[in-house]
Specification:
The structure holds three protein chains of three kinds. Chain A is mainly α. Chain A folds into two domains: 69 residues, no CATH class; 106 residues, no CATH class. In chain A, strands 1-3-2 form a three-stranded antiparallel sheet. In chain A, helix 2 runs antiparallel to helix 3. The longest helix of chain A is centred in the first third of the chain and has 35 residues. Chain A is elongated. Chain B is mainly α. Chain B has a single domain, classed as Helix Hairpins. Chain B contains three helices and no strands. In chain C, helix 1 runs antiparallel to helix 2 and helix 2 packs antiparallel against helix 3. The chains are: A mainly alpha, B mainly alpha, C mainly alpha. Chains in contact: A-C, B-C.
C-alpha cells in the first residue's frame, strides 16, 4: 500500500516531503502501540502476582519491555481505543449491555435445549458493519458470538457472515439492524 | 452451608462433563470432537476452581489460568490445521 | 454479612453449573455441528464466569486472579469457536436439512471443499423455496 503511494508521489515530485510525513506518522503510531502493549503486559503481570512488591514490579517491567521490543505488532484490548471520556462511558454501557445479552442468550438456548421438539430454524445470513478498526471488528465478532442464537463465521471486509439458530430475516439490512446495531453504536464510540 | 452448594455445583458440572464426553465419543466428524474437547476443557477449569474452593488453596487458580491458555492455543492450532493453512 | 456472601456465592456456583449442564445437553441434542458450537460456546462462557464470580464471593482475596481467568475466557472462548466454525464450513461439514439459507456458501463457493458441492446445492434449493 505504501509502496504504491510513494511511486505515485515520486512521479509528481513530492516524494521526499510525503515519505517523511508517512514515516513520522508510522513511527508515532507504532510508538503508541508499543506503550499500550507494555502497559497491558505489565497489568497482566501484576494481576497474576497480586502484589505490588518492588522486586516483582522490576521483573515484570523488564520482561514486558523485552516482549514489547520483540513483538511490536501485538494486538491488545486498548489498541486503537479512543481515550476520550465518551469512549470510557460507552465502554461501561457496552459491558452492561453485553452481559445482559449474554444472560438472555443463555436462557434462550436453555429453553431451546430443554424443549423436546427442539424448535430451531438455522441458517447463515450476511450482515454489514460500519466499524473500521481491527479491534472494533474483533470485539463486534466476539459480541455477536456470545449473544442470542448467533455465531460469527467469517469476516470479509465490512461483511460479517453470521450463523443463526433461528433465522428471523435473510435480508441484509433487516438482519444488520437485529444482530449488529445494538453493539455497533457503543463500539463505534469506543474504537471507530 | 457453602460446602453443600459446592457439592451440588460439582455434581451438576460432573453431569455436564459426562454429556460433553458423550458427544466427544460419538463424533461424528473431527470438528465435533474438537468442539466437545473445547467444552470439556472449560468444564475442567470449573472443576479446578471448585477443587480450589474445597481444598481452600488459591494456588490452584494458577493451574486453571495456564490450562485455559493452553487449551485455547491447542484449539486454535487444530482449527488452523483442519483449514490446511499451516 | 458473612453468611449472605456465602449464600450469594453458593447461588452463583449453582447457577453457573446448571448453565454448564444445559451446554452439555445442547451439545448432545443439537442436530448439526454449527448449532452444537452455539450451544457449547455460549453456555460454557457464562457458566464458567458465574462459577468464577461465585468463587470470588466465597473467597474475596482471590478476586483479582479469578477476574483474570474470567476476562481471558471471555475473549478466547468465542474466538476459538469462531475459528472452529470457519474451519468446519471450509471443510464442508454437513449442515442439517432444516438449514434455511447459507449466504457464506453462496458468496464463496470456491473456498469449500469439493466433496460437498452436492450438500451446499441442496441447501440452496431449500433456501429458494422458503
Amino acid at each position: 500500500m505504501y509502496d504504491y503511494d510513494t511511486t505515485n508521489k515520486q512521479a509528481s515530485g513530492e516524494w521526499l516531503l510525503d515519505s517523511n510525513l508517512h514515516a513520522e506518522k508510522k513511527l508515532k503510531h507504532s510508538m503508541r502501540d508499543r506503550v499500550v502493549l507494555f502497559a497491558t503486559l505489565l497489568l497482566f503481570w501484576l494481576m497474576l502476582n497480586g502484589t505490588l512488591a518492588l522486586d516483582s514490579l522490576i521483573i515484570g517491567a523488564l520482561v514486558s519491555f523485552s516482549i514489547t521490543l520483540l513483538f511490536c505488532s501485538g494486538l491488545s484490548f486498548f489498541t486503537e481505543f479512543r481515550a476520550t471520556p465518551q469512549a470510557f462511558a460507552a465502554g461501561i454501557f457496552y459491558y452492561i449491555y453485553f452481559f445482559k445479552e449474554l444472560i438472555k442468550s443463555n436462557f434462550k438456548l436453555a429453553a431451546i435445549v430443554l424443549n423436546p421438539s427442539l424448535p430451531i430454524k438455522p441458517g447463515i445470513v450476511k450482515v454489514r458493519t460500519k466499524l473500521k478498526s481491527k479491534m472494533g471488528r474483533l470485539m463486534l465478532a466476539n459480541s455477536i458470538t456470545l449473544t442470542p442464537g448467533t455465531l460469527t463465521m467469517e469476516i470479509d471486509g465490512e461483511w460479517i457472515y453470521v450463523h443463526c439458530v433461528t433465522v428471523e430475516s435473510t435480508d441484509i439490512d433487516e438482519a444488520t439492524a437485529k444482530i449488529v446495531a445494538g453493539f455497533e453504536s457503543y463500539l463505534e464510540v469506543m474504537y471507530g | 452451608m457453602a460446602e453443600t452448594f459446592i457439592t451440588f455445583a460439582t455434581i451438576l458440572s460432573g453431569i455436564a462433563f459426562l454429556l460433553a464426553l458423550g458427544r466427544f465419543l460419538k463424533g461424528p466428524s473431527t470438528v465435533d470432537r474438537v468442539i466437545a474437547f473445547d467444552v470439556l476443557t472449560v468444564i475442567s477449569i470449573t472443576f479446578i476452581v471448585l477443587s480450589a474452593l474445597i481444598e481452600e488453596r488459591g494456588i490452584y487458580l494458577d493451574v486453571a489460568l495456564v490450562y485455559a491458555l493452553l487449551s485455547f492455543l491447542g484449539v486454535i492450532a487444530i482449527a488452523r490445521y483442519l483449514e490446511g493453512r499451516f | 454479612m458473612e453468611s449472605a456472601m456465602d449464600f450469594m456465592g453458593g447461588f452463583l456456583l449453582l447457577a453457573g453449573a446448571s448453565f454448564l449442564l444445559f451446554g452439555g445437553l445442547g451439545l448432545l441434542r443439537m442436530p448439526d455441528l454449527y448449532n452444537r458450537i452455539q450451544a457449547g460456546t455460549k453456555t460454557t462462557t457464562l457458566g464458567t464466569i458465574l462459577v468464577l464470580a461465585g468463587a470470588a464471593f466465597l473467597h474475596p482475596e482471590w478476586g483479582l486472579k479469578l477476574l483474570l481467568i474470567g476476562l481471558f475466557l471471555l475473549f478466547t472462548n468465542p474466538l476459538s469457536s469462531q475459528v472452529l466454525a470457519r474451519a468446519a464450513h471450509r471443510g464442508g461439514i454437513e449442515k442439517t436439512p432444516e438449514t434455511m439459507v447459507d449466504k457464506l456458501a453462496e458468496d464463496f463457493p470456491e473456498s469449500i471443499a469439493k466433496s460437498t458441492t452436492s450438500i451446499s446445492s441442496s441447501s440452496n434449493k431449500i433456501g429458494d423455496k422458503s
